[in-house]
Design a protein that fits this description.
The structure is a homodimer of 351-residue chains. In chain A, strands 1, 2, 3, 4, 5, 6 and 7 form a 7-stranded mixed beta sheet that branches. The first copy, chain A, is globular, with a radius of gyration of 23 Å. In chain A, helix 1 (8-14) crosses helix 2 (20-30) and helix 6 packs antiparallel against helix 8. Chain A has helices at residues 8-14, 20-30, 79-91, 160-175, 189-197, 209-218, 223-228, 250-264, 281-292, 298-307, and strands at 31-44, 47-54, 64-65, 68-70, 97-104, 119-128, 141-144, 311-318, 326-331. In chain A, strand 1 (31-44) and strand 2 form a beta hairpin. With 351 residues, chain A is α+β, with helices and mostly antiparallel strands. Helices cover 31% and strands 18% of the residues of chain A. Among the domains of chain A are: 1-29, no CATH class; 149-243, no CATH class; 274-337, Orthogonal Bundle (Arc Repressor Mutant, subunit A), CATH 1.10.10.10. Chains A and B meet through helix 1, helix 2, strand 1, strand 4 and helix 3 of A and helix 1, helix 2, strand 1, strand 4 and helix 3 of B. The structure holds a DNA duplex (30 and 30 nucleotides).
Chain lengths: 351, 351
DNA sequence: TTATATATGCTCATATTGAGCATTGCAACC
DNA sequence: GGTTGCAATGCTCAATATGAGCATATATAA
C-alpha cells in the first residue's frame, strides 16, 4: 500500500480520471457495512435496565442482543437520525437523550469466517429514557444490566460472585506460566487484574466496566471468548462462563454504555433523563445509587444537589414514603443555560 | 423499511436463504467507506501543533487537511491498527498514545453531489506525540492548531478576534429574524452564543471547542459552511471566513481533538505523552498552558503535580533557566498502576 | 398512643483550593 | 568580588468544599 491514501477521497470527488485504479482498490478493500447499536437504558424500581431483543442463539448459545440496524446513508442524513428512526420503527420508542459511545471495528474472529461477507463496523450509542416512555414496545424487553455484569452490582455490598468465581479464576489466569520464548508482557497480568478489579490495595473503580469485561474476555471467562477464539474450546472451559452472554459484540457495547453513564452523571445532569418529571430527593438518590452503587450519604447528597441548583421544589409533597412526607422536586432545566451544567458530583471510588 | 433490521446480521451469517432480498437491500443502501482520520498533536516551543497535509484546494479554497486513509478490513484486524499502519507509511511516524474521538457520518451536503459515490463515514482519532518523535516525516508539516481556531488562543489573554469579529457577527446572526411561519427554536440562538462563547455572564469553557466551531459553521462564518451549504453563497459572505479552513470535515475533527485533549489532561496523566523524558515543573506547566490557556498559579501547580505523585525528581538540575536552577523531573509511570491515575486536575473555567 | 421510619435541618472536623509572601541560587553586569 | 535580576522553591493563611454525624419533624402502622 504505497498509494497516497489521503488523496483518494479528493480524487473520487475531484474527478481526476487517471486515479480510478486507486478508487477501485478502495471500493474493493475498504467497503464495510455500518451497524448502529443502541444501549437504551432506564431505571425502573431502582433497577437499571437495558432494552434487549431476543433472537436465535449464536455459537455460544447467546440469544440476547441490543437492538441494532444498519446505517443507510440514502435514507438518513446523519448516523444519529438513522438510529432514532429505526429504534422508533422497531421498538416504538422515541429516544430523547442519545450520545455516541464508541466505534468497534473488530468483532472477534467469528466475523471473518466468511471471507466474502462484508465486514461490519459497530457504532455504539447510549440512550437514556424514562419508565413513562417504556410503553408500547413492539419488540424487546427490559433486562437488568447486572444480569450481564453481576460483578458490577454493589447495591447489596460487595457482590459474592467476585470472591466466589471471578477473582479466583482471574488469579489462575494471571499466574499461568507464559509459553517459553514468548515476549515479556508490557503490563503484568496480575497488575491488570489488580487495577481493573481493585484488589491488593487498589480501589474498585465503578467506571472501569469495559476494562473489566475485556479482561474477562481475554482470560476466556465469558461466553463470547469461547465463541470467538479457537483456543477456548468448550472442553477448555470447564466452569460456567461469567454473566449472561450476548450476541456479536453487544455485551462490550453495553459495558461501554454502563461505564459511560457512571462517569457522566458525575459531571453532567443526565441523571434527570432517567427521572420522572417530579421526584423526591431520595428517589433521585436511589436512582444514582442504582447506577453507581449505594455509597451516598443522604444529607450530603441533598446538600450537593440543592446547592448546585440542579432542582427546584414544586411545592407539593409525597406522602406514604414510610415516614415524614417528602417534598417533590423537578429538574431545573435552566442549569443547562448556566455555567457548564454540573452533574451529581459524587466522588468516584469511595468503596 | 419495515423489515426486522436487527435480524439482518444474523441472517447474513446464519445462512437463511429466504432473507437474501433484505441482504441485497442492505448491501445496496448500507455500504459505506470508512475514513480513518488522525489528529496528531504535539507541543513544540510552547506551541500546540497538529500534523497537517497540504493537497489540492477544495471548493472553498482549503488546501489543508488531517492525514487520513481508508479502513481496509482485509489488511487490518482493528481500526486502530489500520490507523497506526498507514500513519507509519505516510508520515514515517510511529504513534504512541492513540484514542478514538468520534465517528462522523454527515459530511455536509457536498458529499452527496455524486449519488453514486460511496458515502464516507469518518472515524476521528487523537494521537499525542513528542517533539523528539517528529523527525523523518515523509509528508505533512506541523501547524499551530490556533491557526485554525484563533478564538481558542487565550495564551496572551482574551484573543482580539473574539470581540473584533467573532462575537459581532454571531450577534448579528443570533438576532436575525426568523422566517415567518418557521417553528420556534428549542434553544434561542442568543443562548447558544452565550453558553458557547461565554458572554453575558456565562463563563468561557475551554473544552467547548467543537460546540463553538459548529455554531460558527451553522452561522455560516467558517469557510466550510460556504462550501457545503447552498444558502451561503460567496456573495452572501462579504466578510472573511473565520480561521483557516480545512478540507472535508477535518476542522471539525481537529476541534473534537482539541476539546478532548483539554478535558483529558485534567483527569488522566496524558500530558506526559507530550513531554520529553526529563523536564522541569515549569516546562510542564507551560505545556499545560499551551493547551488550556495561561491561568495557572505556579506554586499551586507544583503542589498539585507533586502531591498527586505524578512526577519524581531525577536528581539533576537544569541551569540557564534565567534564574535559580530548576530540578528535573520525570513522569512516575507507576501512577498508572495505582488508583485511577489522575491528571493535572486544574479547575476548568477559571478565566 | 406509641413505635418506627423516613425527611430534613444543622454542626463540626478535616481536606482541598486559591492566593500571596519569603527565601534560595545561578548568571550577568558593574 | 560584589550587586542585581530573575526564576525556582518553600511556606502560610484564608476561603471553600467535603465527610460524617446529631437532632428534630412528621408521616404511617401497631
Amino acid at each position: 500500500m504505497s498509494i497516497e491514501m489521503h488523496t483518494q477521497r479528493a480524487s473520487s470527488r475531484g474527478g481526476d480520471p487517471k486515479r480510478s485504479p486507486a478508487r477501485d482498490l478502495r471500493i474493493d478493500a475498504g467497503t464495510v457495512e455500518i451497524g448502529l447499536n443502541a444501549a437504551i437504558v432506564a431505571v425502573a424500581d431502582n433497577e437499571p435496565v437495558a432494552l434487549v431483543v431476543r433472537e436465535e442463539a449464536d455459537a455460544s448459545g447467546a440469544t440476547d442482543g441490543l437492538p441494532f440496524g444498519p446505517f443507510t446513508p440514502r435514507d438518513h442524513r446523519t448516523l444519529e437520525s438513522g438510529l432514532r428512526s429505526w429504534v422508533n420503527e422497531q421498538a416504538g420508542l422515541d429516544l430523547g437523550y442519545v450520545e455516541q459511545l464508541y466505534t468497534f471495528g473488530d468483532r472477534g474472529r467469528h466475523a471473518e469466517d466468511d471471507d466474502t461477507a462484508p465486514h461490519v463496523v459497530s457504532i455504539g450509542y447510549l440512550a437514556l429514557t424514562r419508565v413513562n416512555d417504556m410503553r408500547e414496545l413492539q419488540r424487546g424487553s427490559w433486562h437488568s444490566w447486572y444480569q450481564y455484569f453481576p460483578w458490577e452490582d454493589w447495591r447489596k455490598g460487595r457482590p459474592p460472585i467476585l470472591d466466589g468465581a471471578v477473582l479466583p479464576r482471574l488469579r489462575e489466569w494471571a499466574e499461568r506460566p507464559q509459553r517459553p520464548g514468548a515476549p515479556p508482557r508490557p503490563i503484568l497480568r496480575t497488575d491488570r487484574v489488580r487495577i481493573c478489579f481493585g484488589v491488593d490495595g487498589a480501589m474498585w473503580d465503578e467506571e472501569k466496566v469495559l476494562e473489566r469485561y475485556e479482561l474477562l474476555y481475554e482470560a476466556g471467562l465469558v461466553g463470547e471468548a469461547l465463541r470467538d477464539r479457537p483456543e477456548f474450546t468448550p472442553a477448555a472451559m470447564t466452569e460456567e462462563p461469567l454473566g449472561s452472554g450476548m450476541r456479536f459484540d453487544h455485551r462490550r457495547i453495553l459495558a461501554t454504555a454502563i461505564g459511560r453513564v457512571r462517569a457522566k452523571i458525575k459531571y453532567r445532569p443526565v441523571i434527570f433523563e432517567l427521572m420522572p418529571d417530579e421526584f423526591t430527593l431520595f428517589e433521585l438518590q436511589r436512582t444514582v445509587e442504582a447506577i453507581l452503587g449505594p455509597h451516598l450519604h443522604k444529607q450530603n447528597f441533598r446538600r450537593l444537589v440543592e446547592s448546585a441548583g440542579l432542582v427546584e421544589a414544586t411545592g407539593e409533597v409525597r406522602t406514604r414514603t414510610g415516614g415524614r412526607p417528602a417534598k417533590l422536586f423537578r429538574f431545573r432545566r435552566e442549569v443547562l443555560l448556566e455555567r457548564p451544567a454540573p452533574g451529581v458530583r459524587v466522588k468516584a471510588n469511595r468503596i
